[in-house]
């Protein structure tokens, strides 16, 4: 097998110390996880999203589930859907072969992840998301920041057939590094994306008749890095490069609230799936802020254990207090119920009590992560290091999910 440490200095982007961290992590991972699955792709990965449906696996003791992936570096296959065989019990989630491969430094050779099909476009897709009401309709943001639609309902499962784009939507001016994209959970078939001109563009794509909706703007924002729709109300949250978040009402196209919330640009924003008054923002200032939209004069709490820019925040779909965040090559899991909990005197110089777990399996920056909607303790994370990693911390970490 090929060693995972091949060409390490090149892959580390000038951070050779990460390989010692990775070596230690792999040696100790069998004590940290109930499930760990690693798969190397031929290209770097930008985004991931679990599909909600599960199916019977051909493997005894497993069930199947699909994941939508955005890919880097090859415009001929900018996204793919993979099918994962997930063990029914934790005993099958960590095979003896995988343990030995991790200890030896060899690249894990897992057959439980396989490609169903890839999309064909001619451009990289940095973020790809399916519609919550029609998950065969897939939208992506390209390397040129275009918004592209695909219908994957007619694509067969065998081999590596290709899905052709339905349409390239007119809207945001083209500019690199502008990849926000979100579907509205309230309005069927409504898609939103921001542009470098501070606008949030929306489309109604129902029935194949694509209709551009009114663009919404905050004059105090210049570049919007991320958007997220409220789970039940007519609100869009936007995270901006000008250190500011903005809450819009999409019915009146008005600004509900706009506030400087961090010391540097804000990269991500997400509303709580059950309590729509709460939302998170993650910033280049290395912090995550928890907000109540009814009183935004001050954050409810600020999470400060990250050492570099926070690029992703995602609430757990089941536990109201747990969320995940990504910064550089790490994924952090947090529990708000532990805020203010006493620390053992021996741990006073350690992490905050609300920090549950750190996943250290990537060598390059984590570009995307997603909680499994059917297994709320399972996370998928992807990186430009070409790995997709599917993992679940041990019950001693997330014993209440």
Automatic annotation (TrEMBL):
Domain Histone-binding protein RBBP4-like N-terminal, first and last residues per copy: 20-74
Main location (coarse class): nucleus
Signal peptide (from-to): none
Keywords of the record: Chromatin regulator, Nucleus, Repeat, WD repeat
GO biological process: chromatin organization
Keyword Disulfide bond tagged: no
Cellular compartment(s): Nucleus
InterPro entries: Histone-bd_RBBP4-like_N, WD40/YVTN_repeat-like_dom_sf, WD40_repeat_CS, WD40_repeat_dom_sf, WD40_rpt, WD_repeat_RBAP46/RBAP48/MSI1
SUPFAM superfamilies for this protein: WD40 repeat-like
Gene3D superfamilies membership: YVTN repeat-like/Quinoprotein amine dehydrogenase
WD repeat positions: 259-292, 303-336, 359-392
Pfam family, one: WD40
Gene Ontology terms: cellular component: nucleus
PANTHER family: WD40 REPEAT FAMILY
Protein name: Histone-binding protein RBBP4-like N-terminal domain-containing protein
